[in-house]
Amino acid sequence: MKRFLILLSILLSLSLSSQQIIPLDEKSYSDSLQNIIKNTAPNTSKVNACFLLSNYYRNRDSLLSKKYLETGKAFIKNSPFLSAKYHYYEGQYNLDRNKKKAAASYLKAIKELAEFRNEESEFMQSLAWYNYAVTQKDKEGYPFLVKTILEKSIPLIKKYETSKNLGFLYTQLAIILTYNAEFAKAENYNNKALGILEKNAPHSAELLYAYLNSTSNFCYQAKGDEAKKFLDKAEKLIAPYPESSANASYYYAKTLYCITKQKNAEALPVIDKGIFYAKKFNQNLLAQMFYFNKYDILKKLKKYNEAKNTLEDVLAEKTLAVDLNNRKTIYKQLSVLNEEMGNAKEALAWEQKYSTLNDSLNTENVKLEINKIESKFNAAEKERKIALLNAEKNQKDLEVSRKNSYLWGLSLILLLVLSLLIFLFIIFRKNKKISEQKINDIKQKEELSLTRAILDGEERERERIARDLHDGLGGMLAGVKINFSTWSSSHLHPEKHSDFYRILGQLDNSVSELRHVARNLMPESLLNFGLETALSDLCEFYTRKDLTIDFQAMNINKKLPLNIQLNIYRIVQELLANAIKHADASNILLQCSQTGENFFITIEDDGKGFGNSKEQNPKSMGLRNLKNRVDYMKGIMEINSDCQGTTINIELSTHGE
């Protein structure tokens, strides 16, 4: 499943960056558009034909695409609507070449198209909003893309319920949800798309891609039989068009199906057909995806040399490897492959490249967090200076007031005495309250600073220990294991020396356990996939035969600052550890939800409650540490415990410090 998600991440980037729906009968489509340009058709028809041809050739022949775009622009004669359409197709031309230029063109198109209240204008606005969000994906992330589709694109054309454009947008939203492992939601939007397209566009490319998206969604859930139903429908749709560029996408979906059903030998000729179409239509990224799958299958078939050559070619071609996360994955695969082949030296070399790149990526994440912290500090420093200037101003105003009171007092001595006594009394009361408040504020700040120092120190020590275990001792043990594996393959017989191989297995298990401990000290899933995935992994780790943990997550913001996510993770980790260690429970329910800037945690177990033993006392060290973390996040905690179980409710603030 993890491998599928790696491939899905790459394929999603492919789907978004190369989003282009062309009719399946491509030759008739392009010929009819060229005939319009050649014949004495009205300028409006020629302009539209040029723009559509520019879009058709944008990934096949960039020079020809540019030529048709500029030709269409030259045909425009004082038509604001056609000028607005030009900006849209200018964005299409630059979408895979220069996202900044493409974004600017889409925004111009949206602004100018909004002046026209007709169906075509609203269709183009919806697609322009969608493609603009695609250009911003790397900067804003997938939530922005989903929000734009739901709040901008779909509302513009939802009133046209039979439109294939609406079906197309539903499929694009389904792709994003599939990538985020929201398979049920993705299936829902795929079904909405199919309901529109099967009835109103039964022979369209949009329907083909809806079938292929449904196939992929079920493949990533390992539901091969369900995937086959949609793959068969896609095959019937594409079969009459052997010259269509969509064949490459069809064969990729068929490759996923073969892998899901573990039909490795059958997948190889399917991949070769897919490579043929991908290269024919300059779909370089998709071609490299086919090669990556081919490597994986050759490895499973133990054709190690062919698998190694295929993966090295993928790395050398650079289309996939230009993305650092993809390159890291390829390095890791080459290390594992060489280890299985007995090439210890090469395995170590690839492992070192993987570790170096992985450390580099982690360092960049750390730098980003440091920059955020520095920005917060600079803002706080500016606020402190402003407050200091205001205090000085208030002090000067107070001094002026006292001088005026003194001058008035010289002329009215009796009134001065009375006024002075009243004034001093008021000042005394006021200063006393201010002093008490300042003392309380200082105490709270000192307690918060102490708690922050303790928690930060704990996390730094955890990170240091995890890094030393994983990179130091873990690397050394991995090297020893690889050397033993290489030596034994040429000196020992598996049956005659079974004890040695048993010990070698124990060494392998020890390396895995060591890395597991390192991940527990500093959860890698939290850094890579966010809080919700890390909490789910934590619950799965604690689950065993006699203990069921039901984890429910609702509306958790994936953009929470890393230090907030880490503190929430540690609180939940302490809660689960206490419940498992002391409660003797059979069932644990963990609920985590977020509303605005408030984060709620509820944990219930059916154990024996706190009782009277010292280790189960609510004032024990474990719960004191838990309370410190809750106080640090300006939260409140409520504990209810009796002989039938324990319930703990926690409310935290995610507003920051």
TrEMBL record:
Enzyme class label: transferase
Top-level lineage group: Bacteria
Residues annotated as domain Histidine kinase: 464-656
Enzyme Commission identifier(s): 2.7.13.3
Signal sequence residues: 1-20
Keywords: ATP-binding, Coiled coil, Kinase, Membrane, Nucleotide-binding, Phosphoprotein, Signal, Transferase, Transmembrane, Transmembrane helix, Two-component regulatory system
Chaperone among keywords: no
Pfam families reported for this sequence: HATPase_c (PF02518), HisKA_3 (PF07730)
Reaction(s) this enzyme catalyzes, per UniProt: ATP + protein L-histidine = ADP + protein N-phospho-L-histidine
Segments passing through the bilayer: 406-428
SMART domains: HATPase_c
Protein name per UniProt: histidine kinase
Species of origin: Chryseobacterium gallinarum
Lineage, broadest ranks: Bacteria, Pseudomonadati, Bacteroidota, Flavobacteriia, Flavobacteriales
